[in-house]
Amino acid sequence: MMSINKLSILFYPNKARINKKGFCVLRCRLTLEGERKEFSTGIFIKPKYWNSSEQYYSVDIVINDQLGLITNKLNDYYLKLRVQGNHIRASDILNKYLGAETKKEHNQVGVSEYYQSYLVKFKKLVGLEVKKVTWDKFYYVGQHITAFIQWKFKVKDVPISGLDLNFLTEFDFYLKTEKSLKQVTINKVIQRFRKVIRIALSEKLILTDPFLLYKSKSVITKIVYLNETELLKLENYQFSQKRLQSTRDCFVFCCYTGLAYAEMNGLKPLHIEKGFDNNLWIRMEREKTGKLLSIPLLPKAMKILQTFTNDSEFIFPRLSNQKFNSYLKEIADVVGIDKRLTHHTARKTFATTVLLFNDVPMEIVSELLGHSSITITQTHYGKIVQKKVSDHMKILGDKL
User: Fold this and answer.
1) Cα dihedral 366, 189, 63, 26 sign
2) What CATH code is carried by the domain that includes residue 387?
3) Listing from the earlier edge strand, what are the strands of the sheet with 35-45?
């Protein structure tokens, strides 16, 4: 047990909440003049390797270093409070450590307060430099931050100057356990939060970058797409219900154009233009990035397009994304495709089965998908290309 004068600091594993991999969070208990206060360190350990008497984790020296830093910081706050001559409680030390001082210092900006001020400025750029959908994503991050601070610290806000690795680790834990968000979504939330904090760093509101030692947890995503056989099977199936036939045609059209849901739903006749090669092209702005899309219409896409000629402002029937995906689930069951189809599956099919598997270079795939950079395309489809290389090498090996 680590202590200084009357302050006792004890770390212990929360064995009541051990996850499937055998890890649980390490908690810290402060005791001062009979008063106890506890908090989560955000550090996960396997209880069997924890030495309670020595306060030592036997399999990871880095964790012991982290605990040493926490201990030093708590002791430092205790000594500073003692020098001020006021009566000290364990809760005062905890509040100092968590960055939630009992009395807010003059002109000190809060984390939530600063984030909200960023949102106000950012909103003025909607329609000029950013899309409303982008602003909405940052807005929801702000909602999560405010709710987290209330949940964790039981206050409306905490000083931005006290933002540290512990805050981020606990925020990650909160989003996972209290909000039930998937890790890929949590990573996006943290990524957007980091963008705002970088501005605070440049304004000297924070002295050290709290993200310096933070590492987002990697997520392995499996790309779901239709192979050549499945796509052909879907194309040739004749549905008795018009709504399923129409939804199938819209989906297949996107399999040969790569249009995302928003672009398909908003496609108008004016977006179809004759290109320099005398062929028809789709030319429109991508909703997500604002990047101009230029997609040549392949014969199969042209054939489907001709079946939707009408006097409407939009080319395709306007269904909500939820309704469209609901119909796709029915379609998969009827056709016998054992995959979870969503509209986004069409975009993945365009990138893989239609383009990459037909040896279209990655940079052209990136351009046709409207990605903001080729890095995004490589991140998503790099393994698909590796499989293609492997298949070619196997064929070559058989020949040799």
Assistant:
1) negative
2) 1.10.443.10
3) 2-4, 7-13, 24-32, 35-45
